[in-house]
Amino acid sequence: MESLNVKPYKKSDQHSYVFGAYSVIRLIREKPEIIRGVLIHSKYGDIPSLIRLCESVNLPYLISDKTINRLSNKENIYVIGIFNKYKSIIHAAQPHIVLIHPRDMGNLGTIIRTADGFNIKNIAIIGPAADIFNPKTIRASMGSLFSVKFQYFDSFLDYQAKFSSHELYPFMLKGALPLEERVRDSSFLFSLIFGNESSGLPDEFSQIGKPTKIPQSLTLDSLNLGVAVGVATYGFAFHHNLIK
After folding, report:
1. Are the CB atoms for 85 and 119 separated by under 8 Å?
2. Which pLDDT value is given to residue 244?
3. For the segment 30-43, what is each residue's pLDDT rounded down to a tens digit?
């Protein structure tokens, strides 16, 4: 650990950081093989337990308030995990969430956490898009990033060609039927498709698959992307018995 050149995150780096004890513990339990080491602040409340966990999987650790303060901009962060970036491939035989050009790292992390919570473990991301390995994204996911599969695609057409057996549900208003109606006749191999935070899905998606809308009050322009993904994901996950 002493020899590791620890510096603020850059997208071009081959490693990234997980902030917070809960998320670091999830990383250790889910993917110990990608971890470079764990940094611990002297104020962390249960240092012996965390050290025992690190030692149980032969992970290097270092107690260093100075290093943590430098990486976290002096936020109240007491544990940081350092890990190697890795590639991930989504499963062809499972449902997907498809995000078209998501820009906000907080929203992306929240969506990952929501997908994990509703047991939809595969997320397709159509670029250009937010950096899934940015510590802000990982922090918003509360470590759920390490429990899901994700895959970037250059275009929606690339995704569609690779997963032609999936039933497509673009979420938009044009030509759309309500969520409740779409869920009733949906197959297990579904892809829930969402546009980005500012512009939603382009109009041409009304000609793709089965356009779906979430009924809402007329006083509201639109739902937040993270909320919309949560509502839609719950509806499909419940119908297909992915959650109890």
Report:
1. no
2. 78
3. 999 999 999 999 99
50-74 as b/e: b if 16+ CB within 10 A: beebbeeeebebbbbeebbeebbee
Cis peptide before 128 (omega within 30 of 0): yes
Is residue 147 within 8 Å of residue 29, measured between CB atoms? no
- Domain containing 79 — which CATH number? 3.30.1330.30
Helices then strands, counting H and E runs in the chain, come out as 8, 11
Compute, in degrees rounded to 10, the torsion defined by CA atoms 29, 130, 196, 158. -90
Q: Which domain holds residue 34?
A: 15-84
Q: Are 215 and 153 in the same domain? A: yes
pTM over cut 0.70: yes
CB 195 within 8 A of CB 169: no
* 70 and 106 both lie in a single domain: no
Are 49 and 136 in the same domain? no
Looking up residue 150, the CATH number of its domain turns out to be 3.40.1280.10
**Per-residue pLDDT tens digits for 18-28:** 999 999 999 99
